[in-house]
Specification:
Blueprint lengths: L10 H12 L5 H7 L4 H8 L31 H16 L9 H17 L4 H4 L2 H15 L10 H8 L3 H6 L13 H8 L25 H10 L3 E2 L7 E6 L7 E3 L2 E2 L14 E2 L8 E2 L13 H16 L2 H15 L6 H17 L4 H9 L2 H5 L16 H11 L11 H17 L29 H15 L12 H8 L2 H4 L2 H12 L20 H12 L8 H10 L4 H16 L8
Antiparallel strand pairs: 1-4, 2-3, 5-6
Length: 591
Amino acid sequence: MPLPSFAGTLGYKRAAHLLHRATFGPTKLQIDSFATLNANQAVALLFQQPLPDPVLPLDPQTGTEWVLTGSTPANSGDPELQEIFKGWFMGQMLALGVPPSSQLAYSTREKIVFFLHTVLTTIQSKVDNSRSLYFQNQLFRKFAFDKTLPIEFNFKELTKKISVDNAMLRLLDGNLNVRGSVNENYARELLELYSIGRGLEGTLPAATTPGDYFNFTEQDVRAAAAVLSGWELDTTFATLDEDVDLYTTGAQKLPRGKVRGSATNASAHDNTVKQFSDRFGNATIQPDPLLLNGTNATEASALDEISQLIELIYAQPETARNFCRRVYRYFVYHEITQSTDDTIIAEMANTFISSGYKIQPVLEDLFQSQHFYEAAAGVNDDNFGGIIKSPLDLMIGTLRLFNVQLPDPTANAGAYYEQTGELIRALTNMGMHFYEPFDVAGYDAYHQYPIYHRSWISTNYLVSRYEFIRNLVSDSQMGGMMKIDPVTFVQTNISNAVASNARNLIIELARYFLPLADNLTFDPAADDNAGLTAERLNYFLTAFLKSPQIDADPEGAWTFRWNNPVDMEVVRRQLESLFNAMLQSPEYQLY
């Protein structure tokens, strides 16, 4: 049955919580709008369809796309094209060029696309092909909003597709897995990382038998590797998956890998019977005689064996639970107790299974639930501000919140990709090697027990986060081409009655900048139930008004300057000091 729903209007705090977790960040106006909705109404808007297909990335050197038609000697080299792909993906996260009415749903879709990248990960330096990276990314996009798609569009089917995806074949050496010389890399990670897993971290007993991983064994790894044998990369991208359209319009199909040999003679595929352990009910997988060419394996029979394998894995209840744990850690909180696993995760898994392993119903149910907002009604165990923003969430969310403008990636591709190149370097400085996780399990923050998202923070990484904000506020990011304008933000988004009062302005900004901003007061004797201490608010107030020091009454002077804009340079400097203090705070690193 679904999780118990949250009843009532969201309000500002819950609206901001939902939009930060489900998207790459809202604007103030979007928070204001969602604050008036109930959870069902809000979630419906986040998943509204249809959405436009992304505009194809353009190579600035030629002004044309290359992902569909292939590159020529006139194009940039592929290392540069890989960076262009990453900059293009960042543009999708920012929803550049998307009509305002569709931006939040578009951002939700891109958040799911990135989530799928964290689960079914890839490593740019190993794949080393811009078109492979693009087509995998588009594969995730096709499966992100899957509720209204035909039944075969679901995460189970996506797992089948990724098993013969060119980027995945390259990443985990599936292209080296041949009959008589089996390579187990992908089979091992498929079981351990991408599907059934080993169980709930922190509760697993010590292994007593070598090769026993609780939910699967070494025998299952070997059997799965044999099932997956016989594939190679198609670097021409001419082998197409006829089941998956690349876009909502047009006839382009999704490229994938191909069998070694030919479609009628998959000569490198292990065509024997594969025996699995008792963890999978001692099941066997064998070729379908109707799909063989005499006694020879074919592309169709090899694909059918992969389908049998994934069906076998998903027939185990633990597979659904393991996927839902990944969803929970990404969108809710890193810690999953045994109690949470037995209740919330179990219900999410039930929804996942009953929907035909579709992703969207699980997310919709979660985002509408009491647990997502309050955990347990009347109990102070919510997870507002419970996740450290990834560098990507910090960056994209900040650019979206302040409507920082980037050049048009179609009309001015050269300038656009120069700026996204700077942003990607800033991500690296903040500790996120975008599309370059340290290993095939993906970014540590999403899987590494027990630290998870706390791996985003170190002394150096925190300094780089603050530096990124400081550069945006001080007009020094890309020589002033990317900038937060505090004066314009306040003039556009905050009423004069609020903005002219220094204390009220801080309280109002905290509601949109920080995850915990309830019952704020500057009085230390009255802040017991406040989201921030009075000491913290007074710190922001001091940072705001400390300059110029000649003001005998700093708060009165602020009111005069704001209402009588004759000294706007001082106003700008004071607001920049306030924005720097609030955005370079530990609280702003959380959502």
